[in-house]
Design goal:
The structure is a single chain. The protein is of the alpha+beta class and 414 residues long. Among the domains are: 145 residues, no CATH class; 121 residues, no CATH class. The protein has 15 helices and 10 strands. Helix 3 packs across helix 13 and helix 7 runs parallel beside helix 13. The relative contact order is 0.17. The mean pLDDT is 88.
Length: 414
């Protein structure tokens, strides 16, 4: 299974060739950048939890690893930590961009039925880990109260852009927060880079309420991109205007399984002076029943209600239920992205607390996640799919078959 996965990755994405393009500045001939990158990529495909766990597999399967990597020398944990500190992060982003582009050319996202024929992406901030003892020069700081006294907590946060409502939840880009910098500033840098590297990839950007920033939204409008932002702040003029319009316009019902949904659609609003063009607002009122436990521990159905407001620049030729789908689709980044990456792929684990190393590991995890997800979705035949019903089962099969193979997976000898 491991050879089949790597053969698929080389045939479709030319992974071996992309790894060889990584810069080896600062690396020795013995432990070059392609060799170490292949180790990290393979380890993240196996979802190993730490660098020490990688070193332990070296000790337990030394002969197998040497055959796999076509190398007589296997690096120690300290060598791998030093390599992460100087590995080519821009090169890893280039590998990810090449995979994203190839998936689009191969029509692997299958967006027609899921997202109305539009490529949609969500942008959100994600905190990877926190510590009160260890810090680096790029750590963010905050004061928290512990046992009645103020202490300094160090942490790292990243802006992440991921495809939503697509067959494969690809991570498009990752940008670290700089010290004394907010989420929107980091997201702007990332989005500018996305618009340069993937000018035609994304049609719709979906944001949380934090991203109601006129400069960001005007920039997207200038590039011909649609944006959808949640409106939560009641002190905004747009919120008051929507309140007034809700009283004079009747909603219409939207058919959603297990929910009663009412939608309001307001066009050509101009109460936001900093926006260059009029905007549109869509409001939803949702009611549904949910199983809960009462005080006696018995299951009962309890009524739930939610109220959502979205602002967007999408023209009226797109029905209001499109905005509803894209607005709720933003949670796709949590359910199919961060949830699996964090709980199963160790996305939040600090493999080595150094700025370049932290970002590099996020890229290795994201690339390995995309490759295994694509292989599971696109390459498994119906007979195998009956045996391998989840990606975790695929990982276990990879672990079993990897060290039983007598042939090498890579051609990365120094």
């Amino acid at each position: 299974m491991s050879r089949r996965l790597w053969k698929y990755c080389n045939k479709v994405f030319s992974c071996d060739s992309l790894i060889h393009q990584l810069q080896s500045v600062g690396f020795s001939k013995k432990y070059n950048a392609p060799l170490l990158a292949s180790i990290f990529l393979l380890a993240m495909s196996l979802r190993l939890p730490s660098i020490n766990a990688i070193e332990l597999t070296f000790k337990n399967n030394r002969k197998s690893w040497r055959k796999l990597l076509v190398s007589k020398c296997l690096p120690s944990a300290s060598t791998m930590e030093r390599a992460l500190g100087k590995i080519d992060v821009a090169g890893l982003r280039h590998i990810n961009d090449a995979i994203v582009h190839k998936l689009r050319r191969n029509k692997a996202y299958r967006i027609d039925a899921l997202s109305h024929g539009l490529m949609a992406a969500a942008v959100d901030g994600h905190e990877t880990f926190k510590s009160r003892k260890r810090c680096c020069k790029k750590c963010l700081k905050r004061k928290i109260t512990v046992n009645g006294r103020k202490v300094t907590e160090y942490y790292h946060r990243y802006a992440v852009c991921q495809l939503i409502l697509a067959a494969i939840p690809v991570v498009i880009d990752i940008e670290p927060f700089l010290p004394h910098e907010g989420e929107v500033a980091a997201a702007k840098r990332m989005i500018i880079r996305i618009l340069e590297n993937h000018p035609r990839l994304i049609d719709v950007f979906s944001f949380d309420a934090l991203y109601l920033d006129s400069t960001l939204l005007n920039m997207l409008d200038e590039h011909g991109k649609f944006w959808i932002v949640v409106l939560k702040q009641e002190n905004r003029q747009a919120y008051a205007d929507i309140d007034r319009l809700l009283k004079i316009q009747k909603p219409h019902a939207l058919e959603v399984p297990d929910k009663n949904v009412l939608l309001w659609d307001f066009h050509d609003l101009v109460s936001w002076d900093n926006l260059d063009k009029p905007f549109r607002a869509v409001v939803s009122e949702e009611h549904w029943l949910e199983w809960t436990l009462d005080k006696q521990g018995k299951k009962i159905k309890e009524g739930k209600t939610s109220h959502w407001r979205w602002l967007t620049n999408m023209p009226t030729i797109y029905p209001d239920h499109f905005i509803y789908d894209f607005g709720h689709g933003r949670w796709n980044i949590e359910n199919r992205g961060f949830n699996e990456l964090t709980n199963q792929c160790h996305f939040d684990h600090p493999f080595h607390h150094q700025p370049n190393a932290l970002l590099a590991m996020l890229w290795f995890i994201s690339i390995a996640f995309i490759l295994s997800y694509t292989f599971f979705n696109q390459n498994l035949k119906p007979q195998l799919r009956k045996l391998i019903q989840s990606r975790m089962q695929l990982v276990e099969l990879l672990k079993q078959s990897l060290f039983e193979s007598k042939l090498s997976l890579f051609t990365l000898s120094p």
